[in-house]
Amino acid sequence: MTQDELKQAVAVAAIHYVVDGEIIGVGTGSTANFFIDELAKIKHRIKGTVASSEATAARLRGHGIDVFDLNEVTSIAVYIDGADEITASGAMIKGGGAALTREKIVASVSGKFICIADGSKLVEVMGKFPLPVEVLPMARAAVMRKLTALGGQPKLRTMRTNAGSDQAFITDNGGEIIDVAGLAILDPVALEREINQVPGVIAVGLFALRGADVCLLGTGDGVKTLTF
Ligand SMILES: O=C[C@H](O)[C@H](O)[C@H](O)COP(=O)(O)O
User: Fold this and answer.
1) Closest residue (by CA) to atom 6 of ligand 1?
2) How far is the CA of 148 from the centre of ligand 1 (A)?
3) Molecular function terms in GO for this entry (predicted)?
């Protein structure tokens, strides 16, 4: 099976976790996009959604699915999103698509976090995928020094402009992303706490303090369900 077929399979499986009549939190990325397309088929069953990025909100609205501002909502039944890496205990690295901060906020007010991922995302020790950290632009250099002191190799995420030059990638929140390579994350909870405390950090893409409750993992042998 191709990676897209595996993503499609977990997106279909995630529909079973959608709670009728409720607000659903929706993540960001290629796997979440497959889920959005599946959710569109049963949109009449839900009250609406809260999106974790402008891109997700646009895709949901494109399907005619209601998107609520988080401030208008008191509870979210379930949050469904992809991951860049996930461990057998449900800790994740997220933020490859730069949506980590809103993802963390929406996940934090959701009843259940259902992670949907192709099997390649399951790892023993996280850190091969560079850890994304969203920062206030004025704190970029100071935060990078701290991340270096923690043993990482931080790099500012950039994007190519139409004029062909590289400039800092700017998130939906006006932040910048530092991708930290070279970390072997043996204690994800401790590292998440430590990076959270660095002044200037908006959010770190480690989801260990509040990890996934369920992971639907796409494999050649079908969708495997890991419960944490
Ligand atoms: O910021 C992006 C998110 O954390 C994504 O959920 C993560 O990067 C996984 O994306 P994909 O499903 O495209 O691999």
Assistant:
1) 82
2) 24
3) ribose-5-phosphate isomerase activity
Cα 28 to Cα 107: distance, rounded to the nearest angstrom: 12
- Stretches where the chain sits below pLDDT 70 are none
208 membership: H or E segment, kind and range: none
Ligand 1 geometric centre to CA of 91 (Å): 14
Transcribe 112-123 into DSSP letters.
EEEEEEEGGGB-
Question: How far, in Å, is the centroid of ligand 1 from the Cα of 130?
Answer: 13
Domain boundaries, the chain: 3-123+208-227, 131-204
Q: Residue 7 carries which side chain, given as an amino acid letter? A: K
Ligand 1: does its nearest atom lie under 6 Å from the Cβ of 132?
Answer: no
CATH of the domain spanning 3-123+208-227: 3.40.50.1360
Known catalytic residue at 38: no
The 8-class DSSP code of residue 130 comes to P
Q: Does residue 123 line the site of ligand 1, with CB under 6 A?
A: no
Phi, psi at 150, each rounded to 5°: -80, 0
Question: Are 169 and 159 in contact, with CB atoms under 8 Å apart?
Answer: yes
pLDDT tens for each residue of 138-196: 999 999 999 999 999 999 999 999 999 999 999 999 999 999 999 999 999 999 999 99
Beta strand 166-168 pairing with 92-93: unpaired
Q: For residue 169, count CB atoms less than 10 angstroms from its CB and return exposed for 0-12, middle for 13-18, buried for 19 or more.
A: middle
Q: Is the CB of 82 under 6 A from ligand 1?
A: yes
- Are 117 and 215 contacting, i.e. CB atoms less than 8 angstroms apart? yes
